[in-house]
What does this fold into?
Amino acid sequence: MKFVDKNNKGKTWDKRSIMIFFIVVFLLVGVVLFITLDYKAFFIRHRGNWTTTVGRIDSIEKLTGINQTRMGNIISVTGYRIEYTYLVDTDEYHAETIISPLENDFIDFAAKVKNEWVIEIYYKKEKFTDSYVNTDLKSAFYKKRSLSLNEHAHLKGYLPKDSLVSTPEIAAQMAETILNGIYGEKNIEKQKPFVVNLENEIWIVKGQMKENSKGGVVYVEIRKSNGEILKITHGK
It folds into this structure.
């Protein structure tokens, strides 16, 4: 079966030519979508074996030409290499990824909140080391964060001249309140009284195990000046 092109007399289109034409068009559309859409995020968000957690941006590095990753891989790409940390239960995982130069809005945002636990991370339920940074600033996760920050943006706030967490007793109370919510009151009660020491203006709060008890203890770092929680871990 042949089709005659009326604009070019004498030229005909057979089924094979038509099929090749549509394949080329389909491939071109696919390339455009591949470049403009975050295809990986789309598939991750629509698969049940992925879930989300909170993370932080540790470093941002602009890439130009040939570069080497921290793990020794050679890549030739333009964009940004991001190193990040995320939490699964109470364990921290470290990873890195390449962000497209088209994601400038997210890069600007990431630079502003560097080292803050405000980034949404997808990770695989069966393999925690498989992760992905959510760069969609329109998601509910980022919208919720923006609303909570803007609520009190007009207030100056107050911090004591000396320090917010001025005594070991206050540090211990802060740590206990937070730890109860994470590990449960029964578990934390067994590790009291806490041992509290001040090192370089950081309160170190540690739990204690009773004699003949098994397992690890909690460990919390609290900045004396403003009460910032720097680290929370639990030994095994």
Summary: The longest helix spans residues 15-36. Residues 2 and 8 are 14 Å apart (CA to CA). The chain has a mean pLDDT of 79.
